[in-house]
Design brief:
Oligomer: heterodimer
Bound molecules: iron/sulfur cluster
Shape of chain B: globular
Strand content of chain A: under 5%
Distance between the termini of chain A: 66 Å
Distance between the termini of chain B: 30 Å
Order of helices and strands of chain A: HHHHHHHHHEHEHHEHEHEHHHEHEH
Number of helices of chain B: 3
Strand order of the largest sheet of chain A: 2-1-3-4
Number of strands of chain A: 7
Number of strands of chain B: 44
C-alpha cells in the first residue's frame, strides 16, 4: 500500500513544521492520546479487524479508483496507529502526512461508521489526529486564519462590529424595496427567536441573509439578530479541532441568547455549525444538550410551511434533486423535513441515490473547503462520486441546505460539467412564497 | 440621580397603541427606570426617525437611530445617523463631534458616564462623556466604563498584518486599551475586561493554543492555564478567574487554585461580604451554583445563569433551567413552578423575597417567591423594589396603555 500524492504546499503545514521541533510533536501526541482521548480510542484501535467492510463506503476511496490508501481504516492506520506504534517519536515528514490525510482526505462525514460491524468511529479517530496537529500548530493556512479570527471576534472573517451593524442596516434598506416597512431587528430584547447568520452572508453572500429576512418578515416572526459579537454561527475552530476556541464561540452564542432572553436560537443552512452548536461545542462545555432549543434552518422552514405561516405561490418547475448534508441528515435525521420542504416548493423532485443517511458527502465538508485554494483539487477529485451521483438524477437544480455542500457542489458542477445550478432552501422559499398584498411596497 | 415616586397607586402614562396610527412605524417601547416615561424610536415618515417620549416627539429627525435607552440619570440617549455621520443624541441634543460610525452605547449604572465605540476614518476607539480618545486603533470592540466614570476601555487591535499572514496573527494582535493607551503586550485574544472598585482593570488573555493568563493594569500573571474564562476583582489587589488546569476547572485567585476542580466553572460573582459564587458543572450535564467552592446539593440539567447576591450578601440566587422551563433557585432551593421565560429576578434588601417578571403561554405575570399574581399583561418590564423593600414598581401595557403602578409588598404576600 503505497501513499502516492502530488506535492501540495501549504504554509500552515510546511512552514509551521520548519519552526517546531520533535519534542513539541511528541508532547502533543502524548497529551492527546493520554489526557484527552476517551476510552473509545483504545477500544477502536484494539477492535478493528481490518475486515475492510468500511472500505467502499468512503467517497474518497471510490473517487480515487479504489486506491487502498484512501480507505477509512487505512487512514487511521497511517495516522493514529502509526503514532501509537512509534510511541509518539515521529518525524516531521510523518506529521506532514498525518495532516494531509486528516485535513484533506477525510471529511469527518461518518458515512463509514455505518458499515463497520463494531461501530468504529473513524471520524472521531481522524479528529484526534487533527487535534494533535492543532496542538503542534500544524493546521492548513486558510483554516488557521479563520480560527484566529474566531478567537477574538467570534466571527470567521475578522469582521469589525461596525461592519456587521452597517451591513444589516443597508440590507434592511434594500429589503424595503421588496417588503413594505420590513425590519431586521438588531439586539431586540425578549424576541422569540435569535437568528444567527453565516459569516459569509455578512460580506459576500448578503442576498442569502436578505432572503432569510424576507421570510421572517412575511411569516411575521418575532425575531432579532445580535447587535454584538456572536452573530456569526460558523465555528471553523471545529475543523482545526481547536477546542478552546470552539467552546468559546458556542458559549458566546448561548450567552447572547440569554442576554436578549429569547426562547430559541435559529440558524441558517449550515452543517458544521449545527454540529458544534448542538453537539460538539455544547458537550465540550459540559452541557448534555443545547441549554435552549437551537434550531436548524431546515427545521425552521419545515415549521413555517407546515403551520401555514409561509404559503407557496408558485412551485419551481425544473427537475430538482437534493443534497443530504451529513451533519444534519446522518447526524440528526432531517432528511424527511428537507423533502417535505422541497415537495412543497418544487413540482418535479427526483431523489438522489443513495440518500438520507447513506448519501455521500459533498467532499467539501469537515473543513476541506475551508482548507482553501491549495487543497481545492483534493476535494474536487474526492468528489467524483458525488458528481456522478448528481448526474445520475438528471436534475437541473440541486438544493443544498448547507453552505459547505452548496459551494462544494458548485465547484463539482464546474469541474465535472454537470450542467446544474445549486440553491439553498432560503433561495427557493424566498422565490416561491406568497407575499401578502399589504406587505407589497 | 432620579427621585422615584413610591406612592401606592396607578398612573396611566400614555396610550402607546395610538402611536401606531400617529407614526409611519413604531419600534419597541422602552420605559424609564422610574416608570414615569415611555419612549420609542419612531419613523415619522419613511426613512425619518425620531424619538417619541410620553406622546412628545423630538423635533429633530435622523436617518437612523440605534442603541436607544434611558441613562442612569433618566435622560433618553441613543446613537443617531445624519448625512453619513453618527453621533450621540441625549434628550434630542446631539454632540458637536460626529463619527464615521458609533455603536455599543453604554451608560454606567452608578456614575452616569456615557461611552460608545467610534470609528474615525479607518481607525477605532471610544468616546467617553463627549470626548473621543486621542489614540485610535485598527479595531476596537466593546466599551467599558470604570466605577469612577473617568476611565473607558476597549479591546483593540494594535497590529495590522496582511490577510492570511497566520504567523504574524499568531504572535497576537489584540490587547486592551485604557483611555486610548494600549497595554504594552498583545495577545491571540483578550476578553472579560473588568474594573475594581478602585479603578484597577483586568482581563483574561490568550497567549497560545493552551496558554491562558490574566493581565491586571498591564501586568501579566506568571501562571498560565490550559483555558480560562472571564474573571472578577474580589478587591483592588485580589483577582479571581475560572481556569482549567490538568485536574479540571478551578477558581484561581491571584494565580493559585483556590477551589476544588469541576467539569466546568464560569461567571464568578463577588458578594458584599466577599463570598464568591459561580456557576459550576459538577459532572457532565449537571449544573449548579458553588459558593466559596462548595456546590449546592441540587443540580439542574439544562442551564444555570450567573448567580447574584442579595444586597445584604446573605442570599444567593440564580436562574436555572430544567425540563425546558426556567425557574429561580435561591440558596440551593428552586421554586416549584417553572416558566417559559423569566426576566432578571430581584431580591428585596433583606433578601427574603424575590420578584420577577415571568411568561406563561405568551402572557406576562409578576411572580413573587415562586407564586404568580393573577393579573396578566400583554407587555411588561422587570418589576423593581423600592430601596426600603416595602414597595414594588410595575411597568406594563394593558389595552394599549402604558401604565406605572406601585404596589406594597404586603398586599402581594
Ligand atoms: S470521509 Fe467520511 S467515509 Fe471517508 S473516512 Fe472520513 S468519515 Fe469515513
Ligand atoms: S469496518 Fe470496522 S473493523 Fe472493519 S476495517 Fe473498517 S473500521 Fe476496521
Amino acid at each position: 500500500m503505497e501513499f502516492v500524492r502530488k506535492e501540495v504546499n501549504d504554509i500552515g503545514i510546511d512552514e509551521t513544521l520548519r519552526r517546531v521541533d520533535e519534542t513539541k510533536i511528541k508532547k502533543a501526541i502524548d497529551w492527546v492520546l493520554q489526557k484527552e482521548a476517551s476510552a473509545r480510542l483504545k477500544v477502536f484501535v484494539e477492535t478493528c479487524m481490518r475486515c475492510g467492510m468500511c472500505t467502499t463506503s468512503c467517497h474518497h476511496y471510490l473517487s480515487h479508483d479504489n486506491d487502498p490508501t484512501y480507505a477509512p481504516a487505512a487512514k487511521v492506520k497511517q495516522t493514529i496507529w502509526d503514532m501509537i506504534r512509534k510511541k509518539g517519536k515521529v518525524s516531521k515528514e510523518d506529521v506532514k502526512k498525518y495532516a494531509r490525510i486528516a485535513f484533506t482526505e477525510c471529511n469527518l462525514c461518518r458515512r463509514c461508521v455505518q458499515f463497520c460491524p463494531f461501530g468504529i468511529d473513524i471520524a472521531y479517530l481522524i479528529s484526534l489526529v487533527r487535534r494533535i496537529c492543532c496542538l503542534i500548530g500544524v493546521v492548513p493556512q486558510y483554516i488557521q486564519d479563520q480560527a484566529l479570527s474566531h478567537m477574538q471576534t467570534t466571527n470567521m472573517l475578522w469582521f469589525r462590529q461596525d461592519e456587521w451593524l452597517d451591513t444589516v442596516l443597508w440590507l434592511e434598506d434594500e429589503l424595503r424595496a421588496e417588503i413594505k416597512d420590513a425590519r431586521i431587528p438588531l439586539g431586540k430584547r425578549d424576541a422569540e427567536i435569535l437568528y444567527l447568520a453565516h459569516g459569509l452572508e455578512a460580506k459576500y453572500m448578503t442576498g442569502l441573509l436578505t432572503g432569510m429576512a424576507k421570510i421572517m418578515n412575511v411569516a411575521r416572526v418575532d425575531w432579532t439578530m445580535p447587535d454584538m459579537d456572536g452573530w456569526d454561527y460558523t465555528n471553523k475552530a471545529f475543523y482545526a479541532q481547536d477546542h478552546e476556541t470552539l467552546g468559546k464561540v458556542v458559549k458566546t452564542h448561548y450567552e447572547v441568547a440569554f442576554k436578549l432572553n429569547v426562547k430559541r436560537i435559529v440558524m441558517g443552512e449550515c452543517g458544521h455549525a449545527f454540529r458544534t452548536g448542538v453537539y460538539e461545542g455544547v458537550r465540550y462545555l459540559g452541557w448534555k444538550d443545547s441549554p435552549i432549543p437551537y434550531i436548524h434552518g431546515v427545521q425552521f422552514f419545515y415549521e413555517l410551511i407546515r403551520s401555514g405561516k409561509i404559503k407557496i405561490r408558485k412551485k419551481i418547475e425544473e427537475p430538482v434533486t437534493v443534497q443530504d448534508p451529513c451533519n444534519i441528515v446522518r447526524y440528526r435525521g432531517m432528511g424527511k423535513m428537507i423533502r417535505y420542504i422541497v415537495k412543497a416548493t418544487c413540482e418535479n423532485f427526483i431523489d438522489i441515490n443513495p440518500n438520507f443517511e447513506y448519501n455521500y458527502c459533498c467532499s467539501a465538508g469537515g473543513g476541506m473547503i475551508d482548507a482553501g485554494p491549495p487543497w481545492k483539487m483534493a476535494r474536487i477529485e474526492g468528489g467524483k462520486t458525488k458528481a456522478e451521483q448528481i448526474k445520475d438524477t438528471g436534475a437541473k437544480l440541486v438544493i443544498a441546505p448547507c453552505h459547505t455542500c452548496h459551494k462544494g457542489i458548485e465547484d463539482l458542477n464546474q469541474y465535472y460539467k454537470l450542467g446544474v445550478h445549486v440553491k439553498f432552501l432560503t433561495d427557493i422559499i424566498a422565490e416561491t412564497m406568497e407575499i401578502p398584498e399589504e406587505m407589497r411596497p | 440621580m432620579i427621585t422615584v415616586d413610591w406612592q401606592r397607586g396607578k398612573k396611566i402614562v400614555a396610550n402607546v397603541r395610538e402611536w401606531k396610527e400617529k407614526f409611519h412605524q413604531v419600534y419597541e417601547p422602552i420605559p424609564s427606570p422610574d416608570g414615569e416615561k415611555i419612549a420609542a424610536v419612531v419613523e415619522v415618515d419613511k426613512g425619518q426617525c425620531s424619538v417619541c417620549i410620553n406622546n412628545k416627539t423630538w423635533e429633530q429627525t435622523f436617518e437612523r437611530i440605534s442603541f436607544p435607552s434611558f441613562s442612569t440619570s433618566g435622560s433618553f440617549i441613543c446613537l443617531v445617523l445624519q448625512n453619513y455621520e453618527w453621533t450621540l443624541a441625549e434628550e434630542g441634543k446631539t454632540l458637536e463631534e460626529t463619527f464615521d460610525y458609533a455603536w455599543n452605547l453604554k451608560c454606567h449604572p452608578k456614575n452616569n458616564s456615557i461611552a460608545f465605540n467610534i470609528k474615525k476614518g479607518d481607525l477605532y476607539g471610544v468616546c467617553l462623556n463627549g470626548k473621543a480618545w486621542d489614540n485610535l486603533f485598527f479595531d476596537a470592540r466593546e466599551t467599558f466604563i470604570s466605577p469612577n466614570g473617568k476611565t473607558s476601555a476597549s479591546y483593540v487591535r494594535v497590529k495590522n498584518p496582511p490577510l492570511l499572514d497566520i504567523f504574524s496573527f499568531k504572535e497576537g494582535v489584540w490587547t486592551l486599551a485604557v483611555n486610548g493607551e494600549a497595554w504594552p503586550m498583545s495577545f491571540l485574544s483578550v476578553y472579560g475586561c473588568t474594573f475594581s472598585e478602585g479603578d484597577k482593570v483586568a482581563a483574561t488573555v490568550r497567549l497560545g493554543q493552551q496558554e491562558f493568563s490574566v493581565v491586571t493594569d498591564g501586568k501579566i500573571w506568571g501562571e498560565t492555564f490550559l483555558n480560562a474564562w472571564e474573571g472578577v476583582f474580589v478587591d483592588d489587589s485580589t483577582f479571581a478567574v475560572p481556569a482549567k488546569t490538568e485536574k479540571g476547572w478551578s477558581l484561581i485567585v491571584n494565580g493559585k487554585p483556590e477551589w476544588k476542580t469541576f467539569t466546568q466553572l464560569w461567571h464568578p460573582q463577588v458578594g458584599p461580604d466577599k463570598r464568591i459564587a459561580a456557576v459550576v458543572c459538577t459532572e457532565f450535564g449537571k449544573w449548579t451554583v458553588a459558593v466559596n467552592g462548595e456546590p449546592w446539593k441540587i443540580t439542574f440539567s439544562q442551564a444555570v445563569l450567573p448567580p447574584f447576591f442579595s444586597a445584604n450578601g446573605k442570599h444567593i440566587a440564580a436562574l436555572v433551567r430544567e425540563k425546558d422551563k426556567w425557574t429561580v433557585a435561591i440558596d440551593g432551593k428552586a421554586w416549584e413552578k417553572g416558566f417559559e421565560r423569566i426576566w432578571s429576578p430581584q431580591f428585596n434588601p433583606e433578601g427574603n423575597h424575590v420578584i420577577a417578571k415571568v411568561e406563561i403561554a405568551n402572557e406576562y405575570y409578576l411572580a413573587i417567591d415562586g407564586r404568580i399574581r393573577a393579573e396578566k399583561y400583554e407587555r411588561m418590564w422587570e418589576p423593581i423594589f423600592s430601596p426600603d423593600g416595602k414597595k414594588i414598581l410595575l411597568r406594563y401595557v394593558k389595552e394599549g396603555h402604558y401604565i406605572r403602578e406601585v404596589l406594597t409588598l404586603e398586599e402581594l404576600l
